[in-house]
Amino acid sequence: MNMKVKFLLMMLLVVAGLSACSSDDGVETTGTRVGGEIQKVRTGEYTELWTVTIEPEYVLSGDFWGGYTPILPAMEAVDGQGNRTATFLMGEIKDFDFEEGYRYTLQVEAEDVLSPLQAQGIYLADASRYEFTLKKVIDKEYVGIREDGRRDVEMDVQLARVRSVNAIDSWEYVLLCGTVVGTGEKIYMSPLEIFGLPNHWIFQEASEDGSTTDYSVRMKVSITPSDEPVYGDIYRRIRLQEIVSKEKVENINIIYMDRDEAERILFR
After folding, report:
1. C-alpha torsion sign, points 231, 236, 237, 242
2. What is the pTM of this model?
3. SS3 119
4. How many angstroms separate the CA atoms of 105 and 55, rounded?
5. Which residues span the domain enclosing 209?
6. Other C-beta atoms within 10 Å of 92: how many?
C-alpha cells in the first residue's frame, strides 16, 4: 500500500482519541474547540468547573490538529441562546456517556494539563490542553432527534483512494465511497463521518507481513437532512443502523477528482 495512504489511515485512528485546535481569539489552545461564553468557576490553579449544555444531536467537527484532519462526530455545547460554545469529541468527557435524543446540562471539571508543562519549558505539539471529567449531571431531558425527511437506505461502503485528475499531481487521499443498493447512488464521506460506526478499521485489515485486505461493508443507515449545517457545508446526518455483511474485495476503489472537491469532502 502507498505510504501516504498508510500514514493517513494511521492518523485517522490516532485522531479519534486526540484533539487540537485554535481558539476564536486566535491564540493556540490545543484541545476542545471553545468559543462564546461558558460558565466557568475556578477551583484550583489549573482547574475550573464548567457548566455546559449538550445538544441532543451529534455534530461534526474538524477543529483538530489545526483543522487539517477529516471531520469527526462530536457533542455540541451551546449557551442559553442556542449558540455553540464548544465541541467535545465523543468520549472526551470522562465518565459521561452521550445518548442522542437527550439535552444535558453538565458540570464538568476542566483541568489545564499543558500550562504546568509550559511553565517548565515543555511544549507539546498537537496535545489537548484540557482533560475533562464529569462531576454532575444537572439535568437530562428527552427531546428526541429530527425524523422529518429521514430516509433509510442500504449501501455498500468501502475505502477509496482519491487521486488527481491531473497526472502531474502526486497527492492522494482516502475517503469512504457508499453505493446505495437498488439505485446505485454514490455517497462520498470522510472516513469517520458515519455516526455509530463501531470500528473505523472495519474496511481494512492488516496482516503481520504488512499486507492489507480491503472489505466492502454492506450496512443499513439513516440519512437525515439538517436545516443548520452539521459542519461546514454538510446538511445531513448519517447514522449507522445495522451492519449487514462484510465481503473481501480484491482492489481498493480508485477515484479521480479535482483536489478542491476531494478536500471539500474530507475537510469541508
Report:
1. negative
2. 0.78
3. helix
4. 9
5. 147-267
6. 21
Q: Do both 164 and 204 map to the same domain?
A: yes
125 grid coordinates: 505539539
Helix H segments across 78-123? 115-119
Is residue 1, in this structure, part of any structural domain at all?
no
Please give the Cα distance from 128 to 181 (Å, whole number).
41
Distance of alpha carbon 36 from alpha carbon 98, whole angstroms: 22
Q: How many CB atoms lie within 10 A of CB 68?
A: 11
| Exposed e or buried b per residue across 228-246, where buried means at least 16 C-beta atoms within 10 angstroms of its C-beta | eebbeebeebbbeeebeee
User: In this structure, are residues 52 and 86 in contact, taking their beta carbons and an 8 Å threshold?
Assistant: yes
Question: Judging by DSSP bridges, how do beta strands 151-164 and 172-180 pair with one another?
Answer: antiparallel
Host H or E run for residue 260? helix 259-267
How deeply is 113 buried, as exposed, middle or buried, from its count of CB atoms within 10 A (0-12, 13-18, 19+)? middle
The answer to whether the CB of 157 falls within 8 A of the CB of 178 is: yes
The gap between the terminal CA atoms of the chain, to the nearest Å, is 26
Pair 125, 162 in one domain: no
**What averages of pLDDT result for each successive group of 10 residues across the chain (268 residues)?**
42 39 33 60 87 95 57 88 86 95 96 78 67 96 97 95 82 90 94 85 86 93 96 93 94 83 75
Task: Specify whether the CB–CB gap between 248 and 52 falls below 8 A.
Answer: no
C-alpha cell at 223: 440519512
Locate 10 and state its grid cell: 494511521
